[in-house]
Write a structure and sequence with these properties.
It is built from ten helices and ten strands. With about 290 residues, the chain is an alpha/beta fold. The strands form two sheets. It has an eight-stranded parallel β-sheet. Strands 1-2 form a two-stranded antiparallel ribbon. Helix 4 links the parallel strand 6 and strand 7. Helix 1 crosses helix 2. It binds 6-hydroxymethylpterin-diphosphate. The site of 6-hydroxymethylpterin-diphosphate (HH2) has 21 residues, from strand 3 and strand 7.
Length: about 290
């Protein structure tokens, strides 16, 4: 699907009871309820601390909150559906009354069902709904969805990532997953796609995906980009995950300039300021 034949981007992103405008870039704020996430593991494992953090990100201007209870960093150990639900549901219960969509980052159909029955408005799946039963778990709910590309599994995905043409392969995969969702009865208006920076990709692969990100937008589905604090930024700057704020803000800005509709970030306030500068500039250019 290229150029004039690309389907028109939908006017908004449907996330359950919310219809998010796509006329400006949206910020998805990350809340990791885990002991082992790569940049903030253990900080928000306590449900009260996680809910406070979620509220803070909402006040800072997040458009969506993404609750994750299983780290998918390279080398991370999988978590059972029971343990994942036990971490995420109390936080979801505490924040679902906020006036923004709450996304749950999970690859497990059991957790998807539980999260949706507890008021989640979006499911963010790093497996792009490939698990048996995942499409069935989300179809009837009207929730928003993020379909992400990854090569391999977290435990080994960074051992030897290999592609002939990384953007072509990522784009073909995501086009197939969009088609599978639509064929199963899911409205396009509910979908977003994500190249999965760092998921079975070298720094070179990540840079090429960022450079060519506009090609993904040709699929006519909003593109979500998650570069925040990632290892590639550490390789460029020599900085530890907690010291990658400036690099993360720069990466979010560059992704939006290349067509990302949503950026998934840990640092909402700083990202929002940067995006406001960009939108002022674009306004001034009109
Ligand atoms: N990155 C992470 C987790 N989930 N989901 C999407 N759609 N896109 C991403 O790039 C993405 C994601 C990894 O970041 P984080 O959640 O901070 O770390 P961890 O997996 O260690 O919890």
């Amino acid at each position: 699907m290229q150029g004039a034949h690309a389907p028109a981007a939908p006017p908004g992103l449907r996330c359950g009871r919310f219809l998010l405008p796509l006329t400006r870039p949206l910020i998805m704020g990350v809340v990791n309820i885990t002991p082992d996430s790569f940049s903030d593991g253990g900080r928000f494992l306590d449900p009260v601390a996680a809910a406070e953090h979620a509220n803070r990100l909402a006040e800072e201007g997040a458009d969506i909150l993404d609750l994750g209870a299983e780290s998918t960093r390279p080398g991370a150990a999988p978590v059972s559906a029971e343990a994942e639900a036990a971490r995420v549901l109390p936080v979801l219960d505490a924040v679902r009354g906020l006036s923004l969509p709450i996304s749950v980052d999970t690859r497990k159909p059991e957790t998807m069902r539980a999260a949706l029955s507890h008021g989640a408005s979006m499911i963010n799946d790093v497996d792009a709904l490939r698990a048996p039963g995942a499409l069935d778990a989300v179809r009837g709910s009207g929730c928003g969805l993020c379909l992400m590309h990854k090569q391999g599994e977290p435990q080994t995905m960074q051992v030897a990532p290999a592609y002939t043409d990384v953007m072509r392969e990522v784009k073909e995969f995501l086009a197939q997953r969009v088609a599978a969702c639509v064929a199963s009865g899911i409205d396009r208006e509910r979908l977003t796609i994500d190249p999965g920076f760092g998921f079975g990709k070298t720094a070179e692969h990540n840079l090429e995906l960022l450079r060519r990100l506009a090609e993904l937008a040709q699929l006519g589905v909003p593109v979500l980009a998650g570069l925040s604090r990632k290892t590639t930024l550490g390789e460029m700057t020599g900085r530890a995950p907690g010291d990658r704020l400036a690099a993360s803000v720069a990466a979010a800005l560059l992704a939006v300039q290349r067509g990302a509709a949503i950026v998934r970030v840990h640092d909402v306030a700083a990202t929002r300021d940067a995006l406001l500068v960009l939108s002022a500039l674009q306004g001034a250019e009109l």
